[in-house]
Design goal:
- The protein has a five-stranded parallel β-sheet. Strands 3-4-5 form a three-stranded antiparallel β-sheet, covered by helices on one side.
- The longest helix is centred in the last third of the chain and has 19 residues.
- It is an alpha/beta fold.
- 36% of the residues are buried.
- The radius of gyration is 17 Å and the shape is globular.
- The N and C termini lie close together (11 Å).
- It binds cytidine-5'-diphosphate (CDP).
- The site of cytidine-5'-diphosphate has 15 residues, from helix 2, helix 3 and helix 7.
């Protein structure tokens, strides 16, 4: 596996995507947001009108082409970066990502995408399943109120008003579903470094992770 592989996992709103994207930009690395890929499958399933509870109905994935590139996500070359953030997708993504068939397909795409070069990949099962031999594994946490506040701010930036109570409920429900599902639940890899970001700024988290990366690179001479 040539190149440095950095795995960043954590629950909803822990800042994974923002932080991974900034690290990638600073280091000139490739960022892959695996949550966006699960969201893209969910969007496609909703648009196709399949029964979301029927695992076999996801066989449409045999012919669809999903890929993440430069902070944008595409389904068959259609840019769905905005569409995957809809409430309908957010509400259903944990269900869709609980199906072994869906996970198997996406994990195989993700492993392939991480084969070449320096990669920062974020998600829920990167350090445990997708890149178990990653050079550095980070698990980001923050308390649920702080995570909800961040999501609220993010929504406001996009011109979307949302209620704190509802955002907390959505995050807590997703945490519950993601940590208790049978297939690759969200859990901390044994060799991951846990970073509680509740009282840290984005810049502080980015610097800390880059510092840890530099230390590893020097040690391994990657
Ligand atoms: O909203 P947030 O950015 O925190 O979530 P996301 O990273 O976009 O991921 C959306 C959902 O996809 C999660 O709640 C998980 O159910 C699922 N997911 C997963 O199962 N495995 C991954 N590697 C990434 C996301």
């Amino acid at each position: 596996m040539p190149g440095f592989k950095l795995a960043i996992d954590g629950p909803a709103g822990s800042g994974k995507s923002t932080i991974s994207s900034l690290i990638a930009k600073k280091m000139g690395w490739t960022h892959i947001d695996t949550g966006a890929m699960y969201r893209a499958v969910t969007l496609q399933a909703i648009e196709q009108g399949i029964d979301l509870n029927d695992e076999s109905a996801y066989s449409f994935l045999e012919t669809s082409h999903i890929h993440y590139d430069l902070d944008k996500i595409f389904i068959n070359d259609r840019d769905v970066t905005e569409d995957i953030r809809s409430d309908a997708v957010t509400k259903n993504v944990s269900l869709v990502s609980s199906f072994p068939y869906v996970r198997k397909r996406l994990v195989s795409l993700q492993k392939k995408a991480a084969e070449e070069g320096n990669i920062v990949m974020d998600g829920r099962d990167i350090g445990t399943v997708v890149l178990p031999h990653a050079d550095l594994k980070i698990f980001l946490t923050a308390n649920v109120e702080e995570r909800a506040k961040r999501r609220l701010k993010e929504n406001l930036k996009k011109g979307k008003q949302s209620e704190m109570e509802k955002v907390i409920e959505d995050i807590a429900t997703r945490d519950q579903k993601d940590t208790t599902r049978k297939e690759s639940p969200l859990r901390i890899a044994e060799d991951a470094i846990i970073l509680d970001t509740t009282h840290l700024t984005i810049e502080e988290v980015v610097s800390k992770i880059i510092e840890l990366t530099d230390k590893k690179e020097n040690k391994h001479g990657v």
